[in-house]
Records
---
Amino acid sequence: MTNDNVCILLPTLNEEATVGQVIRDFRSEGFDNIMVIDGNSKDRTREIAEAEGARVVVQTGKGKGQAIKQAFDLIEEDYVVMADGDGTNLAKDVHAVLGPVLEGKADHVMGNRLVDYEKGAFTRLNLIGNKLINKMFGMAYGVWLDDILTGYRAFNRKAIKSFELKKMGFEVESEITIESVKKDLRIEEVPTTYLARHSEGATKLNPLKDGWRIGSTIYKMARLHNPMFYFGIIGGAFILAGLFTGTYVVVEWFHGVTRIPMTILTALLIIAGFQMFVFGMLSDLVVALHRENMRILRKIDESKKE
């Protein structure tokens, strides 16, 4: 196998300050097959990328998620390395990211930015948000990873053709990781260096808005993978609300005031909470059975191909 069978995928949006150097850096590492999927940049991103010899595709929709989905549909190479076009990833790390995939040890490799990052690469809010989201992901999916939001990843063809991506924005990184877990793909993390953004390149990520969307994606998609986590949070919220109203009822009762409507509400909230837990346990059994059946079917399918 040569590097021609590896596609370097660079999603871009207004990256004229960095995209040319990023392409040159990957070429210096021996990778000439570079695709730039551009989100209708208003600057000279596309012209610079074409001048550097990259294949440029203008995405048909909006958002990073849609761009990656479109690119995955177009790519025919056996291996794909996805990196950011803003110059925050080191091209020389491509060998570490791609290695486990080429060696057949993994289907999906993620570059862990949190091991080695340049001063100013993360704000304090970004770091806190990343760590919280990683913990939430681990609790929801039972797979503990250090950096599920990394944009530096490598895939084999099996992985990219198995993904069923629906998210259009920055949630796509978490969705790709969730899809990998759901499809039983082999995942590995490798340390990579993360650089501060170029002074002329403004970030497109809104920490609060996009952080909320990413967290919501992890929670909502857990419904079909870990129902106990999904319904357990709802049930816990109901029970906490019931305990709050119940405390108020008890305090009022000690003062000689009987709150019958609040008492009824308290009972309903607590009962509903326990019902959510029961529903979560039953759903978990169904999902576990379905997952086991799918694993058996995949093994049968793989044995037939062999």
---
Amino acid sequence: MSTSGTRTLEAARPPSWRRRRLDPDHARGLRLTLAATAAFLVLVPFSLLALLVLRAWTPLRRVDEAVTEALHAYALDHPAWVTLMRVWTDVFAPMPLRAVALLVVIWLLRRGARRLALWVTTTMVVGGSLGPLLKLLVGRDRPELLDPVARAAGYSFPSGHALNAALAAGVLLVVFLPYVGRAAARVALWVAAALIAVVTGLSRVALGVHFTSDVVGGWLLGLAVIAATAAAFTIWRAHTGPRPVHRDGGGDVGAAEADKRSTGG
């Protein structure tokens, strides 16, 4: 066979796995693999933690009780700290965070970013629905304190505040990071997202209405939901075809703007 014929056959063969992984046209497949792997890796520790809670594992119970008692003693001696935690936990409660997410969805729809708006909606709805369902399945009681500084109804694991705060932090980063160009602004956005998730979860333990493992479970479940919905939407985009992406990396928002320019709209 001639050299030209060999080259023709090689060109006709599908690219190897390594070449596909490095090919920009196959970047979506790599992102899908990473998102699915992340969802699995986060879901495993959450499942293990839930199993330990269900079995009332003694070491975990001792740590939970020790942290709760220490923070409760501090709260009794520092009323201002309790007030701060109450304000924070009310401002970043699930309902206010969902209201803000709805505003973000409306903003995205007005900019033509329908897919991103649907992802935000799906992420918040799926995560918000899993929390109450898992609470009923696990049926863990909240901490019992002699002189509580706050009260909350329902079961304890996982923490709904921690779960929804993690979801909101993920939405904040996914939606707004593409619009932030300066390094300092990007750092500020990451810090804001971390504060929303971390301090909201810690406020529930500080007020004595959740154990530490409840909050960690909420964080892990939130991360798993974000990774899972991201993977699902990557598959959906692969089946519905590529969308043009604006140079600023704005995802669907940039795609919508590119569509308008191409059609003269």
